[in-house]
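Sequence, please.
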């Protein structure tokens, strides 16, 4: 097995762009590499494309083209009032890839946290456009695992983020303190996120409307659950290979494989040692190695 050295990457090595998706919505994205196969990395909350900055170059070095967008409402992407259901957010990414980046071949779709929900919606909605799906450490609305975890006190933020206006009022002006707590209780290694990493996220979510947009992705969970149940009933389980990744110390980590078996036929489970929730930052070497094994062509 190859050994990968993963370190902080100079973001100047990546190409940044903005794409007009629809009136009132531009998506920011980062691309790297020129491989024949494309890996799409979809971040979660409260993060941006920067979540993946330690793993992009090793994937490029392995011969892949990498696309890491800021989804609707996050990072440098626009923050519209609506459209935070994951079915719509998946369509945003499809338009980005097909209309703006010219991606025609099926992609490897990787999603962490909220990105897991977007990546699954993408795989269900655009079934012929995904070769592999990687789902990382979050419950998926519409599954029994999601319903069990939703009432767990450790995921109190689901209810808090769902309280429109209340969450915004209480967090406004305290974004740094809130994010510090949010990251701190979900990590196995507090040093995994550097000061630069944390400051990047604080700057992103202190921008006007950013926390509102971040909370809206949670407020769409009931719609997401309905959409996912309808898609499963209509299309059946996913048939593409799925890698279900959990953190060793995560609340949901041990349940990701069970959860994905509810909605997919070919599921491989993986628990990443030395991680809680922030897998790509806590143990990027192990994550990259596992991802490359999973997508390798025989």
């Amino acid at each position: 097995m190859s050994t990968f050295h993963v370190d902080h990457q100079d973001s100047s090595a990546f190409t940044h762009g903005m794409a007009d998706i629809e009136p009132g919505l531009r998506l920011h994205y980062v691309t790297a590499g020129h491989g024949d196969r494309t890996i799409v990395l979809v971040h979660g909350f409260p993060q941006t494309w920067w979540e993946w900055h330690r793993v992009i170059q090793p994937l490029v070095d392995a011969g892949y083209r990498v696309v890491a967008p800021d989804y609707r409402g996050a990072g440098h992407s626009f923050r519209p009032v609506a459209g935070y259901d994951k079915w719509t957010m998946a369509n945003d990414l499809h338009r980005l890839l097909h209309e703006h980046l010219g991606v025609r071949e099926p992609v490897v779709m990787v999603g962490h946290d909220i990105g897991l929900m977007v990546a699954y919606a993408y795989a269900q909605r655009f079934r012929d456009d995904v070769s592999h799906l990687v789902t990382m450490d979050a419950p998926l609305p519409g599954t029994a695992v999601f319903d069990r975890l939703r009432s767990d006190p450790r995921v109190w933020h689901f209810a808090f983020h769902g309280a429109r206006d209340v969450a915004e009022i209480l967090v406004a002006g305290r974004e740094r303190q809130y994010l510090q707590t949010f990251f701190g209780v979900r990590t196995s290694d507090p040093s995994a996120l550097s000061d630069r990493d944390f400051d990047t996220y604080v700057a992103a979510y202190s921008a006007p409307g950013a926390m509102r947009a971040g909370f809206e992705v949670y407020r769409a969970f009931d719609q997401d659950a309905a959409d996912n149940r309808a898609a499963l009933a209509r299309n059946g389980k996913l048939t593409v290979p799925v890698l279900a990744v959990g953190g060793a110390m995560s609340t949901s980590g041990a349940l990701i494989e069970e959860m994905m078996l509810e909605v997919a036929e070919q599921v491989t489970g993986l628990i990443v040692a030395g991680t809680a929730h922030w897998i790509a930052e806590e143990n990027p070497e192990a994550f990259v190695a596992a991802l490359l094994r999973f997508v390798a062509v025989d």
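Residues 49 and 70 are 5 Å apart (CA to CA).
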